[in-house]
Specification:
Number of helices: 2
Strand content: over 45%
Order of helices and strands: HHEEEEEEEEEE
Radius of gyration: 20 Å
Number of strands: 10
Shape: globular
Distance between the termini: 59 Å
Length: 124
């Protein structure tokens, strides 16, 4: 029994140290942000874009949230969330691979109360 306890303790210690040593992927990502009540942030990797919406208030942020890719062939918008982001919560989209012909750049957007709020535009 004593041997099992020592092995379990050693395994837990190793797991907790591994968790501390490995930084999260989000921490290494460079985000460009704008917005006060709902922070709208965008990042890129190759020809992929990801947007993060962070509600900085106690009230819910209601609206439609998405990403638009643009290029010589026009633009293409994709809605990732149509609804609410609870107070003090964050919603991050999946990576969006911009289609061929629409790989000049991308921007994120939030439509709320008849207004549209944008992230910074990034170029690939």
């Amino acid at each position: 029994m004593k041997k099992i306890t020592h092995l379990t303790l050693a395994a837990l210690t190793t797991l907790s140290l591994v968790g501390l040593a490995a930084p999260s992927a989000d921490a290494a990502t460079k985000w460009t942000c704008s917005g006060r009540l709902t922070a709208r942030c965008i990042t890129k990797s190759g020809t992929k874009a990801k947007v993060k919406f962070s509600n900085t208030t106690s009230r819910s942020a209601k609206g439609t949230f998405g990403i638009t890719c643009y290029g010589p062939d026009g633009q293409s918008a994709k809605v990732y969330k149509d609804g609410t982001i609870p107070g003090y919560d964050t919603f991050t989209t999946a990576w969006r691979q911009c289609p061929r012909g629409l790989r000049t750049g991308a921007f994120g957007w939030q439509m709320s109360n008849g207004k549209v709020y944008y992230t910074a535009s990034l170029t690939f």
